[in-house]
Structure formats: structure tokens, C-alpha cells
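Minimal example, chain plus NAP.
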Amino acid sequence: MKVAIITGITGQDGAYLAKLLIENNYKVIGLTRSHSNFKGSNLNYLNISKNIVIEESDLLDFSSIIKVLLKYKPDEFYNLAAQSSVGISFEQPIGTINYNTQSLLNILESIRLLKLDTKVYQASSSEMFGQVKNLPVNERTPLHPLSPYAISKASAYWIGINYRESYNVHCVNGVLFNHESYLRSPNFFVKKVICTSLAIKNGLAENLSVGNIDVKRDFGYAPDYVKAMWLSIQQDKADDYLICSGQSIYLRDIIYYVFDYLGIKKDKLIENPELFRPTDMEDMYGDNTKARTILKWEYNKSFLSILDILIEEETNNFK
Ligand code: NAP
């Protein structure tokens, strides 16, 4: 039986990845920063809590990583924990950059010093590309990050490559584009649009207030994206892969689609310049050819079809 450690187990991707690994007969160890503040709702929703061993481990504390590595000697280590919001990163730049880089550095340095052959997956982000000249971006596109979050992910990306090239540590960078599910945190755009729209429909909210929605992004479906994470770490040679749908959609069109679906009038939309970000990318989409050809990853969902799934699931769980 293979053993996998997942950081960020309480998040959207941690929960879906744990489910996939359990279905493939892995022993799954989930790391939490604190037992007392552990949020098990996503794992409960997928009905997998009883199949996961939860260990407390502070990724900023080198010794606490060494302890879990020595205890489990994992085959695979998925580093998903992060301050993952671009918006919050403008409010907390130092905490975001420190945490998102130091955590990976501690993990890789521990594996190197312990001489383990644990394979590492690092959750990189399309935000690293930032200001791009040519679309779609691919694995060779230069990085020009536009937020503290993007800077943290770009630094971690290069830390991963450096450990691969300098010390032969097997570190895969999966460069994730936006991916959604019912388990997405409420502060992220698509989840916020659907939840607020349902609240408006049910008389619990007046309107939907958003920032700049005249930008385009490449959105996908989280349960499919964690499959690409898993496939990427199965390769003999560590490499970098873009995990994306290959198409972008206007945020405005997402809102209009959800409003139409739920029968909400467009005057419920408020565009608030105070919510605009200091810097933003106009359009971003990726080329997933490498993931499809080398990993044999299959992805052909349109984002509107995913929105149908998300709206239905949110409606069924609406209280
Ligand atoms: P998420 O739902 O926001 O979950 C983040 C996880 O990290 C949670 O388990 C959270 O634990 C933990 N975490 C957050 N801040 C932390 C901190 N300061 N110290 C320790 N743990 C912390 O994120 P996700 O959507 O699953 O994304 C997984 C990874 O992929 C992240 O690294 C994210 O940056 C990256 N990514 C995601 C997307 C996307 O569209 N979802 C796109 C690109 C990259 P608590 O329960 O303790 O808060």
C-alpha cells in the first residue's frame, strides 16, 4: 500500500485528492496546522474522514516536518497548504510570501537531509505568469507575477526546480489554473457568485457586489484537476505541467449565466471600484497539451457545463 501525505487537507483540493488516493488504495495522512482548529467539513462532505489519519504539523517548523516524514516515510507528498487568496495577499503580503515559500523549502530540505525518495507535488499557480505577452501560456512562458500571492508561488516554483536540479529531489510543479467545486472557499469568485445569487433568490441578500469583471480567466473542475496532480507525480521523471482547460471566459459572463439560471435580474449586480485589485491580468488561459500527451490526462468540459453542476449542488445544499 502506498503512503501519501497531503498538506492543506481541509481545503478544496486536499479533500478531492484524498478521496482519489483512498479510491486507489493509498494510506492517506493529512496534515493540519492545529488539531483544535481543524475544519473537517470538506472531508465529511465527501464521506472520507474515517479513512484519513490527521497529524498536527506546522510547516514553518522544520522539526515537525521531519517528525512526520520519519514516522510515515511517504511515497508521495502533496504540498497544497497555502494562503491561497490573491485578494488576501494584498492585505497580508509578508505572511503570504513567508508561508507559501518557507513551507515548501522546509519540506524539500527535510526530504533531502533525510535522504528519502519521497516524490513531492507542489501546487503552483497560473497567477505566476501575470503580465503575459502571448496567449495561451505554456510551460516555457516567462513568469511576471502581479501580486504577493503570485510572487510567493513563483518563488516556490523555482525552489522546487532548484531542489530537482541541484539535489535530484523529485519535485513536480503542477501549475494550476482556477478550478472550482462545491467545496471551494466562500471568498473565491465563482462560489461567491453562486452563493450570493441563491441568497438573492431566497430574499436573504439584496445584491451581488463585485470588483473588475471585465477580465477573462481559464476555469476548470476541481475533481478532474486533482487527477492531473496524481498523474503528474506517477511519472519517473519530475517535471512541470500546466493543468488548465485551455479556454478563458469573462467573469461578467459567469455572473450573467448564474443570474439567468436562477432567474435574477441584472440590476442586482453592483460593480464596486473599491473591490478592484491594484494590478490585474486582462486575460489568461493555458495550453494543456503537455499534460494531455505525457500524463494522458483527459479534460474536455466547458465551464458553462460545470456551472450547471455547481449551481445544482449549491441549490441542493442551500439552507
Ligand atoms: P484552499 O481551499 O484555500 O485550501 C488551502 C489549505 O491550506 C487549507 O487546508 C488551509 O488550512 C491551508 N492553509 C491556508 N493558509 C494556511 C497557513 N497560513 N498555514 C497553514 N495552512 C494554511 O485551497 P485549494 O483551492 O484547495 O488550493 C490548493 C492549493 O492549490 C493551494 O496551494 C493553492 O494556492 C493552489 N492553487 C489553487 C487554485 C484553485 O483554483 N483552487 C489555483 C491555483 C493554485 P486551514 O483549514 O487550516 O485554513
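Residues 93-114 form the longest helix (22 residues). The pocket of NAP is lined by residues 8-14, 33, 39, 80-84, 99, 123, 125, 176, 178-179, 185 (CB under 6 Å).
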